[in-house]
Amino acid sequence: MKLESTMKRLSAVGAIGVVSVFALSACGGGSTSGGSEAEAGIDRLNIIVPADPGGGWDQTGRAMQKDLQENDLVGNASVVNVGGAGGTNGLAQLATEQNPDTLMVMGYVMVGAVETNAAENRIEDTTPIARLTEEPLIVVVPADSPYQTIDDLLSAIESEGQGVSITGGSAGGADHILAGQMLKEAGISPESLNYIPYSGGGESLAALLGNKVSAGISGVGEYAEQVKAGKVRALAVSGEEPAAQLPDVPTLTDEGIDLVLTNWRGVVAPGSIDEAKAAELTELVTEMAETESWQATLETNAWSDAFLAGEEFDAFLQEDIAAVKTTLTEIGLL
After folding, report:
1. What b/e sequence results for 157-175 when a residue is b if at least 16 CB atoms lie within 10 Å of its CB, and e otherwise?
2. CB atoms < 10 A from the CB of 148, how many?
3. 249 forms bridges with which residues in the sheet?
4. With 70 as the cut, is the pLDDT of residue 220 above it?
5. Quick one: pLDDT band at residue 199, thresholds 50, 70, 90?
6. How far is the CA of 165 from the CAs of 23, 179, 195, 297, in angstroms?
7. 239 closest CA partner among 265, 217, 221, 259
8. Are strands 165-168 and 44-49 parallel, antiparallel or unpaired?
9. 28, 11, 41, 9: which is closest to 277 by C-alpha?
């Protein structure tokens, strides 16, 4: 599934005035406390990373923590990791969070995980704040793998079925969906897919380096250094164009597979906050996204700037949730 291209950045002023559809449904027009805090600014921001350390969500949360503090946008920002179940454990914690000054990192992976895990807590129950980044995925194999091309890997799956294993992030996430869609595009039954999910990029990398799996899928940024070091071999990336970090790796389209998928990441807040607090958090993230240090963070990590806030992010989320449900059904995951 091809996600929408990066949409035009909203100004901080515009973001403040937006009332989120999800937030209204969660708050019922809300009058909970938070107005005085909005006037005084945010002293202690809580950032929930719904995954174990080492993966893309963790990198995003800690990059936000650094840039928010370096630019004196908050008094202090702390990060807590709540791993497991494709981020839905973190989503459950957000649902009971009492601190209104809380952001949770999330994205495409969580959209799918909510469906495949039949999670009680849903993204629709949160307050959407902003989409931040997107990046293509990369398909890699161990350095001594016999598979030299993506066609080699798919041909092996066609002939050996579940004897060929692919690792990646949590079940139903972007990595899992890409694996299923590659098989679909190649005319291979989804029952042939042997997907081994991990909650963090570090675990999937360890499985690859230990030759415990045949191939792996993750964000380009998570595997790029291992590819450059020759520890794993890249077969293809899932973007429209080659990735800036690994310009010599072909796209799936280059390799004859008509498939483009990018993994977006963003932040949401508790669904219980009021409109004033939602506006304050939206302004905060908008200001961070406009700083030179955040732009440097994007460049360092080779993340594409996909900033989107307010009603437009709300609408994007609703469309993406519907599209992911359709895709998961088509490739046999629901």
Report:
1. beeeeeebbbbbbbbbbbb
2. 11
3. none
4. yes
5. low
6. 41, 10, 6, 33
7. 259
8. unpaired
9. 41
β-bridge pairing 127-142 and 262-269: antiparallel
Q: Name the strand (E) or helix (H) holding 219.
A: strand 215-219
pTM: 0.74
11 vs 163: CA distance, rounded Å? 51
CA distances to 67, 117, 148, 292, 300 from 10, rounded to whole Å, are: 19, 33, 43, 17, 23
Sign of the C-alpha dihedral, residues 218, 2, 89, 33?
positive
Encoded amino acid at 190, one letter: P
Q: How confident is the model at residue 169 (pLDDT cuts 50, 70, 90)?
A: confident
Residues 58, 49 contacting (CB under 8 angstroms):
yes
Two tokens at 124? 């629709």
**Is the pLDDT confidence value at 222 over 90?**
no
Distance CA 266, CA 48 (A): 12
Residues 156 and 91: their CA atoms lie apart, in Å, by 37
CA distance 217 to 173: 11
Q: Which residue has the higher pLDDT, 14 or 201?
A: 201
Instruction: Kindly give the pairing relationship between strand 127-142 and strand 215-219.
Output: antiparallel
Do 115 and 328 meet the contact criterion of CB atoms below 8 Å apart? yes
Measured between alpha carbons, how far is 265 from 109 in angstroms, rounded to an integer?
A: 9
- Strand-pair partners of 238: none
**Sign of the four-CA dihedral 22, 27, 31, 37:** negative
For residues 188, 192, 197, 203, the Cα torsion angle rounded to the nearest 10 degrees is -90
- What would the two tokens of residue 25 be? 């449904």
Q: Are strands 194-197 and 215-219 parallel, antiparallel or unpaired?
A: unpaired
What phi-psi label fits residue 267: left (phi over 0), alpha (psi between -120 and 50 degrees) or beta? beta
Q: Which helix (H) or strand (E) holds 157?
A: helix 150-160
CA 94 to CA 82: how far, in whole Å? 10
CA 120/CA 103 separation, integer angstroms:
20
* CA–CA dist 308, 115 (Å, integer): 23
